[in-house]
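Human:
Take a look at this sequence-structure pair and walk me through the C-alpha cells.
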Amino acid sequence: MTTIEQTAAEDDPRRKGPDGLRALDRAMSILFLLASRPQGISLAEIARETGITLSTVHRMVGALRERRLVRETPNGMQALGPASLVLARGFLGGLDFRVEALPVMSELRERTGEAIHLGTLASPHIVFVDKLETVHAVRTASRIGGTAPAVLTSLGRAILAYSPQPVVDSVREATINLLGREIAADVLEAVLRDTRERGYAVDREENEPGVDCVGAPIFDDTGRVIAAISVSVPAERFDDQRMAVIGELVADAARRVSSAIGHQGPIG
C-alpha cells in the first residue's frame, strides 16, 4: 500500500480501531464547524479552521456527502446536508419536557419538602401537566390535567413574562371574560416585569387561598418559553426570606430542564 493509499485508509470514517476513531473525530469536527456556518464554507476554510489537511478534508467531505450529511451549495460552498435534519428531528422528537423535568422535580421536592408543579399555557389557563405531592400532610387542591387562570399563578406568570406581547394581551382579555372583572394592563405588566427582574414569579394566595407559589420558566431549543416549574407552599410556612431561597432553587431547576431539552444561552 502506498503512503497516499495508507493515509486515505486511515482517514476513512468507516474504518474500525484507533485510526477509525481519529477519522470519526475529524468528521465530527467538520460537521460541528458546518453547523456554525449555515450559509456554507469552502474546503480551504474547513482545513484552516479544523487543522486538517486539505486533501483529508476533501476525502472526508466526500464521504459525508455520500451519507447526505454534507451538501454543496450552488456557489460551491460546503454546508450541512438533509440527513443532518433527520438526526436533529430524531433528537428533538425523543425529548419530552415532562420526562426531562421529572428527576429535577424530584430533587426540588427533596430540597424543599413542598409540592412541585409543571405546567404549560392553554390560554387563558395554565394546565398542570405533572405534579409531585408535598411530603407534609396538608395537600394543595391542584391535580394533573387541572387548570387555573394563568395570570393568577406563578406558573402562568413565569410563562407570560417571556411570551410575546400579543400573547400576553390575548390572555389578559380572555381572563377578563373568564373572571368577569378587570385586569389592568399596567398592573399585569408590572407583575411580569418583576418576574423578569427576579428570574422567577410569585403568587401570594392569588390562585388558591392559603397557598403561596414560586415559579420559573422553561425554554426549548429555539429559546421559546414552553412551560414552567413551581413550588407550592402553605402560606403559614412562607415568608420573604423563604421566597428568595425557594425562588433561586426553582430558577435553577427550570434552567436545568431547559438545558436538558436543548436550550442554550440567556433566557428570554
